[in-house]
Write a structure and sequence with these properties.
This protein is α+β, with helices and mostly antiparallel strands. The protein has a single domain, classed as Cytochrome p450 (Orthogonal Bundle). The protein is built from 18 helices and 13 strands. The strands form 4 sheets. Strands 1-2-11-8-3 form a 5-stranded mixed beta sheet. It has a 4-stranded antiparallel beta sheet with strand order 4-5-13-12. A two-stranded antiparallel ribbon has the order 6-7. Strand 6 and strand 7 form a beta hairpin. Helix 8 packs across helix 10. The longest helix is centred in the middle third of the chain and has 32 residues.
Length: 430
Amino acid sequence: MSQQAAAVSLFERETLIDPYSAFKTLRDQAPVHYEPALDIHVVTRYELVREAIRDAKTFSSKFDGFLNKSREIMFAAAPPEVQQKLLDINRQMLLLPPTMLTLDEPEHTRYRSLVSRLFTGAEIRKSEPTVQAVIDRSIGSLLSGHKDGAGCRQADFMSAFAFPVPLRIIGDRLGIPEADRPFFDEAATAAAAALRLSPLTPEEMVHRAELALGLQNLLTALVDARREQPADDMITILANGRLQDEARLLTHAEALSILQQFLVAGHETTTSAFGWGMVLLCRRPELQAEIRGDAGLIRTFVEEVLRMEAPVQGLPRLVTRDTTLGGVRLPAGSMILLSFAAANRDERQFEDPDRANIHRPKAGMQLAFGSGVHFCIGAPLARQELNLGFRALLDRFTRFRLAEGASPQAEPSFILRNVPELHIDYQERR
């Protein structure tokens, strides 16, 4: 490893907010880079990330220990009285077992197969009118945005559109009752935010734990209700589906584990992509007119947004045997982080990778949704939401630009990449 590459620290605040120059340094000089802050090797080249994904026996998805260690570090930083409150709340919660995200084959497929039929091409096409209706309602929020004398409207795009659209859609697919939606929206957002592993104040830690307990109680009650009275939703499928090899219903903890993963995959990542897509349209206004009304160019635009600002920046893998990757020795038991964000800007794979190209060939080869057996099961739904959403936005509005003084930036996180607020100006199309 070169001295320059060794000096790169991916977990400093400024680097977490804008990691791309650091990623380039590592791709060029140390594509399998040891990061002492978390005792993990970070893999940044596209071909090496794909190599590790293809070798699931050597690079296992059983990385629960890594997540638990990160949470323990945060817990240890809390004052003693806060630790006690957290322990009291934790004792009331179900311990969630690994299901899809942190399992390898064949256990992974046992759970994934229960819900995979919800994301077939036919099911996604069938859901289009419902998704479009949600998008149209949020378009109404943008139509009511503050209007100045020149006819220019202003809004926080994240709170008016990017947050509510995916959250409403995942709530509908899960089957959350209308009366529970305000609490569900807050608790689901907090559950997704937990994966950022960002520092929290003691008060935030307690509040997030209370929300997690309340969400478990809500979802457990809904699982029981759907066993008595099934409906056409995901909770019903999980409540009544049976693991084929054991011919038994899922436990409450197994069902909650799967549902919690969908809360992240179902709204946090799509919200992020909506935000960064709007940032790109504002910073490159010529794209607005070029892709408006062209479904094919909008599809490529969406893939480029996902490539350039991967909502899931990367995921860990557990090394199961002594091996090498990119010429670096990795002992059994060590951890690597597959950096999808770095791989997506690898000039060895993508020409001019730091610039969105709406005519890019094979734009879908980006790794924002992962690859292999752990390819994001909700990717078809996310793509549908993003394509329909940007089409509707461009049909109804024009002249998107950043509001005066707005300087959107990511929250510091090495797992999820989101933009918390995005103040824009825009005009209604006539």
